[in-house]
Sequence to fold (190 residues):
Amino acid sequence: MLLWREKIPADWLPKILNNLPAVLVDHAHLERKAATTALTLEKYPDLFGRVQELNAIAMEELQHFDLVLNLLKRRGIPFGQPFPSPWISGMMREVRKGIRLQAIDHLIVCSLVEGRSCEKFQILAQELTSHDPELAQFYGSLVESEGNHYATYILMARDINDAETDRRLDYFLDLDATLICQPNPLPMLH
Ligand SMILES: [Fe+2]
Ligand SMILES: [Fe+2]
Fold:
């Protein structure tokens, strides 16, 4: 896994643990957006040869979405409105326009979202063990898949242009370090 340049802020975990129903709704939207994003990446000519791999990711994310919806149903939590994530929109704002560069930037941002999800799911799998074992087990079951998505997206960017991917990864890791420290009182994973 990546060497992040900033730790997840200390107030993130208590905020999540104290608002699990809202976090699960946010998580459902996160998986829904991950599925649509995998399909959106298929528009880039540089990724035409990877369409079936992207379809496979989209289907996996759709399954995750469905699993979260089942959890919501079992717990009597209504599926509600999504909150916009300032961290994700801050990263997406820096994706350059212009097909080839845009594909690399977009893949890097997707990769970092998957990487941070993987890291956070790992923390939740551990922290929820005694408090909510069902949820702990659920988060643990997603870690490998999100880690694979992180790796797949970064390798796809490297296949387009390795040096440019290094350069932009450096930029986006700095941006992540800045954005992750900005206070966000909303009960969101990102
Ligand atoms: Fe997922
Ligand atoms: Fe994912």
